[in-house]
Amino acid sequence: MCKSEETSKKFVLIHDQMIDVTRFLRRHPGGSIIQPMVDNDATSHYNEFHFRSKRADKVLKALPSHTATEQELQNVKRAEVAGKDEDALMRDFYRLRADLEREGWFDPNYLHLMYRIIEICVMHYVGWKMLSFFYDAGETIGIYAALCFLGIAMGRCGWFMHECGHYSATGNIEIDRLLQELFYGLGCGMSATWWRRNHNRHHAYTQHVEFDSDLQTLPLVAFDTRTLDNVVPSSFLKLWIKLQKYLFVPVICPLVALGWQVFLAPKVMLKRGTATEMFWFGLRFSIVAYLCQYRFGWPLGLWYYWVYGCVSAIYIFVNFALSHTHLESHADDKKNWVEYTSAHTLNMGHNFLCNWWMSYLNFQIEHHLFPSMPQFRFPSLKPRIQALFEKHGLTYQYDTYFNSMRRTFANLGEVAASVH
């Protein structure tokens, strides 16, 4: 092989192996997420995203590889950790992870799983009974209270499908995918396939202005000034961004959900989706059409659906924004897994009510370190993560729920103020 061909090859480091991904970049099921990992250590990314996947292990073993030389290991060292003992940090992290795996922290809890499913079913049943009762009684306030309750129930489907999407509900990838497709398709009217491809990008590159899909939100909202550099804003878009702090809750969040349901979800399902998620998605809107036709009438039924969807969208998207969108963004893809988590994620509101309200995703640090761990274990895991961070001089970022809310909207205002 000539030298030019050898140097054009693209490698990632996983454990002590240099994996040749030159031909695999376009075939990777998760899309282009591995492109920025070329010439970097992808061990933690591989461990956390493919923890339970035997198929991924087979694919990895089939790719061309060789044991990394000392020079190659040095080439993937990060300049950003100069003055720190990065090797010691990652050794401690891998040791902790092995201990947690041995102690059963990654094992599913089927009683907790049943509780999550029963809670969602009961909330939908109670909400439907409330709506039917108040509709028949002509009680307008009661009708909207029922729609808000149902909107929260829909949001609970979103939290649960998130757990399934990380394969931490049952620990069985196939079953968790089916559950995710059920609760995201029937419960929320969205695509599990689309979510998995985009959400893993967020975990791999949190707050990265180029790679984090949670920051690629224009033209609806801008969480960072640097995302505005990639567009030529019209006069209308400039005005929209200037007002985004005030539009975010009542307008932007519902528009995001509407765009996902009527455009992104059908588009992705037709291109890459499974038959099961198409079935649940179709069943959801068949039920909506039936209720509009035979229970409420079309104009009123669609209005009820819109209100119910708005409540759910606000519940989900506002809470997701609280945990990282107001933190400092970056264009650095060379921090190690633990430093990334320390620098770009935030915990909030460690109390029983917030734990329920956010389904333990108020523990973003623990979740980003171990995305395949059942989320209800995070409160108990917190002291061990704090000890790891303290030992290595890393910041364990924490704030109250309402101060995180304040910071999120202040950031929206600061980005808006940069538009001229």
Number of strands: 5
Biggest sheet, in brief? 3 strands, antiparallel
Structural class per helix/strand content? mainly alpha
Query: What percent of the residues sit in helical stretches (DSSP H or I)?
Result: 55-70%
* Unreliable residue stretches: 1-5, 78-84
Mean pLDDT: 90
Arrangement of strands in the largest sheet: 1-2-3
Query: How large a portion of the residues is in β-strands, by DSSP E?
Result: under 5%
Oligomer: single chain
The SSE order reads: HEEHHEHHHHHHHHHHHEHHHEH
Walk me through the structure.
- The protein has 18 helices and five strands.
- With 420 residues, it is mainly alpha-helical.
- The chain has helices spanning 3-7, 43-49, 54-62, 70-75, 86-103, 110-137, 140-165, 173-188, 192-204, 235-242, 244-272, 275-296, 298-322, 337-344, 352-357, 364-369, 378-391, 401-417; strands spanning 11-14, 17-20, 65-67, 347-348, 398-399.
- The strands form two sheets. A three-stranded antiparallel sheet has the order 1-2-3. It has a two-stranded parallel sheet with strand order 4-5.
- The protein has three domains: 1-72, Cytochrome b5-like heme/steroid binding domain (Flavocytochrome B2, Chain A, domain 1), CATH 3.10.120; 110-192 and 244-322, no CATH class; 337-417, no CATH class.
- Strand 1 (11-14) and strand 2 (17-20) form a beta hairpin.
- Helix 6 (110-137) runs antiparallel to helix 7 (140-165) and helix 8 (173-188) runs parallel beside helix 12.
- It is globular and about 75 Å long.
